[in-house]
Amino acid sequence: MTRSLRTTLAALPLAGLIGLGLAVPAGAEPPGIPDPATAQTQLGELTVAPEGSMDGYDRDKFPHWNEGSDGCSTRESVLKRDGDDVEVGSDCYPTSGSWLSPYDGETWTQPSDLDIDHVVPLAAAWRSGAAQWTQEQRQAFANDLEGPQLIAVTDNVNQEKGDQTPDAWMPPSTDYHCTYASMWIGSKHKYQLTVTEAEKGALQTALDGC
C-alpha cells in the first residue's frame, strides 16, 4: 500500500473503512495513562520552574532501544504492543501488521513509517530535571515500557514535534489532546520533572477539553 493511499484511507470515516472490508487497527496506547481527574491532581503536584539549559545535553546520555529479557529491543516491543495483528520474525522485527498513529489518525503497514515517540522528549526531560540524573536513571526513562512515555506514531509527525513542550506543540488530531496531556503529565509526575508556567497552562487547557 502506498503512502498516498494510506493517507486517503486514514481520512475515511470508520464506517467507510468497514465498508471496504479493511481491518481497522486497535491503536493500542502505553500503559499507565492517568484518567483526566488523576491527571488534574498530578498536574497540580508538579513543580513549576523555568526550563534549564541544554548545556551538556547529548542523546547518548539517554541510552535507548535496549534489548530486553525477551531479546527484543524497546522499539520492537512498542511496535508489537501498539500494532494490530503484528507478526514478528526471529529477530523480533515486525514482518506484518498495521499501526494507527493516534497523533494524526494515519494508519501504516510498514514499521519504517513509524517512530517511537518519547512523549516527554529526551531534551525536554534534560531541561526539566534529567540533567541531574544518573546515566542509569536516564536509561530507565528512555526505555520505560511500564509508564505512558513511549508510543508508536507517524514518523514525520514525531519529527515535527522534535523536543517541543505542549505550549509549543500538540498532536495534529485535536481529539487526542486530552490523552496526550494526560500521558505527558503522567510521565513528568512519575519522574518528578518540572513544568514551566506556559507548559502547565497548555496542559490545563487540554485537560479542560477532556
Helix run count = 9
Structural class: alpha+beta
Strands side by side in the biggest sheet: 1-2-3
The largest pleated sheet is described as: 3 strands, antiparallel
Poorly predicted ranges: 1-26
Strand content: 5-15%
Please trace the helix and strand order, writing H or E for each element: HHHHEEEEHHEHHH
In helices, the fraction of residues equals: 25-40%
Rg value: 17 Å
Number of domains: 1
How confident overall, as mean pLDDT? 89
What is the general shape? Answer: globular
What distance lies between the first and last C-alpha atoms, to the nearest angstrom? 35 Å
List how many beta strands DSSP finds.
Answer: 5
Task: Write out key terms for the chains shown.
210 residues; three-stranded antiparallel sheet; 9 helices; 5 strands; globular; GmrSD restriction endonucleases C-terminal domain-containing protein; GmrSD_C; signal
Write a structural description:
This protein is an alpha+beta fold. It has one domain (3-208). Helix content is 39%, strand content 12%. It is built from nine helices and five strands. A three-stranded antiparallel beta sheet has the order 1-2-3. Helix 3 packs across helix 8, helix 3 (36-45) packs antiparallel against helix 9 (197-208) and helix 8 (177-190) crosses helix 9. The longest helix is centred in the last third of the chain and has 14 residues, at 177-190. The two termini are 35 Å apart. The relative contact order is 0.19. The model is unreliable at 1-26 (pLDDT under 50). Residues 50-77 are annotated as: Disordered. Residues 110-203 form the GmrSD restriction endonucleases C-terminal domain. Residues 1-28 form the signal peptide. This is GmrSD restriction endonucleases C-terminal domain-containing protein. Keywords: Signal.
